[in-house]
Amino acid sequence: MNLKLPSISKIDNTTLQITGSKSETNRLLILRALYPNITIENVSNSDDSVLMQKALNSNETIVDIHHAGTAMRFLTAYFAVKEGRETVLTGSKRMQERPIKILVEALRQLGCEITYEKEEGYPPIRIIGKKPNTNKVKLQANVSSQYISALMLIAASLPDGLIITLEGKVTSVPYINMTLNLLKDVGISGTFEENVITIQPNLQALSKNVIVESDWSSASYFYSIAALSDNADITIGSFKEESYQGDSSLIEIYKHLGIQTTFKNHTITLKNTKSTTCKLPEVLDLSNSPDIAQTIVVTCFGLGIGCYLTGLHTLKIKETDRLEALKTEIEKMGGQVVITQDTLRLMPANSIKKDISIATYNDHRMAMAFAPLALRTSLYVEDANVVSKSYPDFWADLNRLGIQTTS
Ligand SMILES: O=C(O)C1=C[C@@H](OP(=O)(O)O)[C@@H](O)[C@H](O)C1
Ligand SMILES: C=C(OP(=O)(O)O)C(=O)O
Question: What keywords is this UniProt entry annotated with (predicted)?
């Protein structure tokens, strides 16, 4: 489905309810599979969470998790310690290009049996569930935090817990803290000090009710809309001031772009104060919140300002090579972008070409990041249904704000 987004000059302010965080949900789904008395509220309706639940319910040998990175990584660890179970874990073409070796090596250190079905280091993988023979593991921490969260999630279900030593510069740290916080919420003890994570065993039945906060990465697109519209006053639920999600750094980042965030009764209200000259800090390091990089770059492009983002090394192995994809699509619209392995510089643009068709590369965040540009120009978004990976109601919510789309 390709969508046309006509150019609009102002939005209809309203209140939106965003679905639960897919990151929190997918952690809690694994924990509920290990501790069935756990209950979860505000579960994400994302494809990635639906696929995770389906995989956990499945008794088939072949489990296909399509594009869902967290499902791929968390289920690798989950099935690896499920004694007596044989699973072939596979995914989409892109998933078969997303590395898994660091996690597989870590699980092998524990005595788990995992082999590659096709290319060494990549899914699909065949997993023969085994009981670990040690509780100590070391792994490289600068490629994806999901490998670390995967180990943490299964740790307490093992007789001696796990002591995980992280090597190298740790990336996407808030996601590791999110895992630790959710473990604590369900009654599992653990620490993350220096480069060592220790999770205590807990073999008792845990029965806790956990309410998932709504998804801050999804909220980022409304920050972008607010920054590009003069009259923005958008309310979104349900959020907490003390979030586990690193992408809540949006509050501070978008202050530089004139957006004020107010919390009230678990909602946030975004207002465009227009009081600041829009300008990001000279260098913005996004190694702690990689998923909002696309949103920020496109907002700056729409505002006609430049930006310099660093800490983007993980973007190349996500749903697509997001650095290349951003450069290609922004340059189609008349902008100029310079990328390296881990940085992106956007030059200030004084015009945006109209009626350009944005390719989305099977990446939900490409579709959602470019949509706010309707406040500047008319554009097309290709394969617009990709948004369902994290935010199936995205286009419906955009329509509620008066951004009408036609196919
Ligand atoms: O643990 C998680 O829920 C996630 C961790 C991040 O991945 P990396 O640690 O690979 O950067 C993030 O990009 C992804 O969308 C979700
Ligand atoms: C990178 C993402 O997801 P995952 O790695 O879980 O596929 C994302 O949602 O932006």
Answer: Amino-acid biosynthesis, Aromatic amino acid biosynthesis, Cytoplasm, Transferase
> Cβ distance 145 to 173 under 8 Å?
yes
| Nearest listed ligand to the Cα of residue 26 | 1
Angle between helices 47-57 and 69-80 (to 10 degrees): 20
Residue 314 in contact with ligand 1 by CB distance below 6 A: yes
Answer whether 175 contacts ligand 1 (Cβ < 6 A): yes
Q: Regarding the domain with residue range 3-19+213-400, which homologous superfamily does it belong to in the CATH classification?
A: Enolpyruvate transferase domain (3.65.10.10)
- Within this chain, domains 3-19+213-400 and 22-211 share the same CATH topology: yes
Report the nearest-CA residue for atom 1 of ligand 2.
318
Neighbours of 110 (CB within 10 A): 21
pLDDT tens per residue across all 407 residues of the chain: 999 999 999 999 999 999 999 999 999 999 999 999 999 999 999 999 999 999 999 999 999 999 999 999 999 999 999 999 999 999 999 999 999 999 999 999 999 999 999 999 999 999 999 999 999 999 999 999 999 999 999 999 999 999 999 999 999 999 999 999 999 999 999 999 999 999 999 999 899 999 999 999 999 999 999 999 988 999 999 999 999 999 999 999 999 999 999 999 999 999 999 877 899 999 999 999 999 999 999 999 999 999 999 999 999 999 999 999 999 999 999 999 999 999 999 999 999 999 999 999 999 999 999 999 999 999 999 999 999 999 999 999 999 999 999 99
**Residue 47: active-site member:** no
Phi-psi region of 42 (alpha: psi -120 to 50; beta: other; left: phi over 0): left
Distance between CA atoms of residues 71 and 62, nearest Å: 14
Phi, psi of 223 (to 5 degrees): -60, -40
Alpha carbon of 118 to those of 89, 90, 122, 124: distances in Å? 12, 10, 8, 7
And the tokens for 159? 């007789």
Look at ligand 1, atom 16, and give the residue with the nearest C-alpha: 23
Ligand 2 centroid vs 70 CA: distance in angstroms?
A: 7
Residue 156 C-beta-side C-alpha neighbours within 13 Å: 26
Q: Is 96 annotated as a binding residue?
A: no
Q: Out of 3.90.550.10, 3.65.10.10, 2.60.300.12, 3.10.20.30, select the CATH number for domain 22-211.
A: 3.65.10.10
Buried b / exposed e across 374-407, counting CB within 10 Å, b at 16+? bbbbebbbbbbbbbbbbbbbbbebbeebebebee
